[in-house]
Amino acid sequence: MKGLCRVPCPLRALVSVVCNSSVYLRYIFNTCFRTVEPLEYYRRFLKENCRPDGRELGEFRTTTVNIGSISTADGSALVKLGNTTVICGVKAEMAALSTTHCRVFLSVPNVDLPPLCSSRFRSGPPGEEAQVASQFIADVIENSQIILKEDLCISPGKLAWVLYCDLICLDYDGNILDACTFALLAALKNVQLPEVTINEETALAEVNLKKKSYLNIRTHPVATSFAVFDDTLLIVDPTGEEEHLATGTLTIVMDEEGKLCCLHKPGGSGLTGAKLQDCMSRAVTRHKEVKKLMDEVIKSMKPK
Fold this sequence. Notes:
The protein contains seven helices and twelve strands. It is an alpha+beta fold. Strands 1, 2, 3, 4, 5 and 6 form a six-stranded mixed sheet that branches. A four-stranded antiparallel sheet has the order 10-9-11-12. Strands 7-8 form a two-stranded antiparallel sheet.
């Protein structure tokens, strides 16, 4: 009888293996199919109005923001959009002016895509994607008028602030433009500049580090990116794999008043007027979500 008592244990293990084998084989098949025919694999999901990661076509990945992430910067923020992670640091310096009018002293931002964030990037000079992202952010700053030149003037014709904006991608999984735009906006909202006065006798700048004020952020541009599949189907917030398989991409930047600040479409499939209007409507909705998230984070950081 003691020997018979030992029998069920191996039998239960065998039954468990048999039952789970079909699940395991299905997993192996899906993995191989996704590797060999990735586009067809995605099409099977898209036909059911969903994506392999479980999201609906119009659903964004979980978005989080942490403000004041870098203690050595004058303003900073870390943004996660799904797995895509971008950190932005802003440093402020004073510069002498050689003209009678203040110029826009927001430096052309630098977007860095190091090998750390993805194996697709290599060490060395900035690649094409990093340069495109840097120019995109520069266009957003200029077109949205997020900060006016007068707000960076210390003394007209004499002294002004220079803001150096550096964005580094820590983890790349697509939609880098949305993450960079949000990280820049959040970092600028975090910048505090000390009070500066010009001594009339010595003509030198005197800095009061005990009295600081936040930047006057005029607008809040938010980017919303789309990927086009088979020239007709639109999905929001594409992952890196989805961007690679898409026949085109589109990024729309809106402000809180629903004004179009920037539209970035690097070739690919064309869009009808109706689809473009649909994208702009989604961008307006996305702006409200991102702005609400940022306001909640900033509010939670202020002393009560």
